[in-house]
Each structure stands twice: as C-alpha cells, then as structure tokens.
Design a protein that fits this description.
Layout (H helix, E strand, L loop, with lengths): L7 E10 L2 E7 L2 E2 L4 E5 L6 H8 L7 E6 L2 E2 L5 H7 E4 L11 H6 L14 H13 L15 H14 L4 E5 L7 H18 L2 E5 L3 H7 L2 E6 L2 E6 L1 H4 L2 H8 L3 E5 L6 E5 L13 H12 L2
Parallel strand pairs: 4-9, 4-10, 7-8, 8-9
Antiparallel strand pairs: 1-2, 1-3, 1-5, 5-6, 10-11, 12-13
Helix pairs in contact: 4-5
GO molecular function: ATP binding
Keywords: ATP-binding, Cell membrane, Ion transport, Iron, Iron transport, Membrane, Nucleotide-binding, Transport
Subcellular location: Cell membrane
Length: 287
C-alpha cells in the first residue's frame, strides 16, 4: 500500500458517549492532499470518528495528532486556522446573509479588537468565487436551496484558510444531480488548492468514484482501508454492509461499482386488454 504523509492521524483512538463505546481502537492516517471517504452502515461510528478528528469528542482512549501534537492540547483558534468542519446539520443564525456567514470563517484570524483587513476581505471573496456563491452574497442563507446552502458552508470553511476540510455527509438532503455537483466542487478544491478532504458519505458508489483513499468501518472498527479498488470488493461489501452483491467496473469513471443482488423480481407479462384490442379492431374496420 502507498505510504502518504499525514498531518492528521489517530492512534488507537476510542470514542464514545458515557458508557457506550462507538469507535474502538482506531488507528487511521488522513493522507495529505487527497480525498479520504469513510463508509459503513448506519451507527457504525463514521460521524463519531469525524467528530473525534475535529476534536468535538474527547478520546476515551488513544489520541488524535495534528502536525505531530495532540489536537486536544492545542488552542482552539490555532486548530481552526488549519482545520475546517462542516457538520451534518449546520445551523445559520436567523436572517444572516451569505457574505456575513462566510465572513465568520475569518474569526480565528482576528483578535478581540482587530479591524477587518484587506486579507480577510480577499479570503472571503476567493472562498465565494471558488464555491460559486459570489452572486449570492446579499441573499439570506435561509432562502437558499439545499445545494446552495451547502456551498456557502464550504465557503465559510475555506475562508478560514483551512487546508484540512472535514465534512459529515455533505450530500445529505441533496438530489442526485446536486450530490454530483457538490462532490465535483470538493474534487476541484482538492485539485486546485491541494485541500486535504476527509468526509463521511452514504453512497458507496459515489465514494468509490471520488475517493483517493477509502476507510470502511463496521461496529466502530476499521475493516478495510486503501484505494477504492482495494476496499470495494464483494467480500468487504458483504462483511461491512451484510449485502449480497456483485462488483463491476463503472463505465464512466472505471472505479468499482456495487450492484446489489437482492431478490430478483420477475417482470410480469402485461396482460392483454380486451377493450383496447376491441378499439383497435374497430378503428381498422372504419378505415
């Protein structure tokens, strides 16, 4: 397997809520400059792992390292300059307009009495141009469509200057065209800016298409990790999702494509409609 450098990694990380352990002794390195996708069934610990990486959940065991230091020992503002997080259901303050929300991404760079600088303005503008939200600057965030809103939140994370971006299900509530648009945007950010992206996705086939690195979780542990070709195999899909499947090649992206076997529904033959036949016969007689 290819060895990457990694600024963000975990060592024997255990996470949970109270007595309940959700992530168990996970050691994972997020490859720099790549797109990592965490996949697995519901309630397997995907979102909790992402929260642990973003230091929103304190480890019950093990550690999260950012640039070689324990992330929980570093000042919040310092971490926010390099690490941006888009949670699953981000909530915007009521009535806030797009430019103001994106501008909030600059808070980690400002002191208590610091004035808004030309650098802040440039960072906000660049983030809005990159995410195609510049024309929405004066619109209220709560008036936007789901896809537009997700792009605004990504713009806010980019305005932070964060070159590590963590996203928890960024395609939730989006129709399939907007899901692809969102993932294309993230892929472009990764290509153009070298942004390191780690995200949780539900759709295994889209994950295989967009990920450089895949991490498959089951019951809080890593079952498989590597390139989509290494991870998306019939055996792994069966183990992780309990799904009888066939893996074929995606004709567009040439990445693995999972086809569920499921129960075959025989196609019912269409029963002849005597009324329709009678109508056809009548119209032919009248010609």
């Amino acid at each position: 397997m290819t060895h990457h450098t990694s600024r963000l990694l975990t060592q024997d990380l255990t996470l949970g809520y109270g007595e309940r352990r959700v992530v168990r002794e996970v050691s994972v390195a997020i490859p720099d400059g790549a797109i990592t996708v965490v996949v697995g069934p519901n309630a397997c610990g995907k979102s909790t792992l992402l929260k642990g990486l973003a230091r929103l959940v304190r480890p019950q065991g093990g550690t999260v390292l950012l640039d070689g230091e324990q992330i929980h020992r570093r000042p919040t503002k310092e971490v926010a300059k390099v690490l941006g997080l888009l949670p699953q259901n981000p909530i915007a303050p009521e009535g806030v307009v797009v430019a103001d929300l994106v501008g909030r991404g600059r808070h980690p760079h400002q002191g208590v009495f610091t004035r808004w600088t030309a650098e802040d303005r440039a960072a906000v503008e660049e983030a809005m141009v990159l995410t195609d939200t510049y024309d929405l600057a004066d619109r209220a965030v709560d008036e936007l469509s789901g896809g537009q809103r997700q792009r605004v939140w990504i713009a806010m994370a980019l305005a932070q200057g964060a070159d590590l971006l963590l996203l928890d299900e960024p395609t939730t509530y989006l129709d399939v065209a907007h899901q692809v648009e969102m993932l294309d945007l993230l892929a472009e950010l990764n290509t153009r800016r070298g942004t390191t992206i780690a995200m949780v996705l539900h759709d295994l086939n889209l994950s295989a298409r967009y990920a450089d690195h895949l991490v498959a979780l089951h019951d809080g542990r890593i079952v498989a990790e590597g390139t989509p070709d290494e991870v998306v195999t019939e055996e792994v899909v069966r183990t992780v999702f309990g799904l009888d499947n066939r893996v074929v090649q995606d004709p567009v992206s040439h990445t693995p494509l999972v086809v569920p076997v499921g129960r075959h529904r025989p196609r019912r033959p269409v029963a002849p409609d005597p009324q329709a036949d009678q109508a056809t016969a009548t119209s032919q007689e009248n010609r």
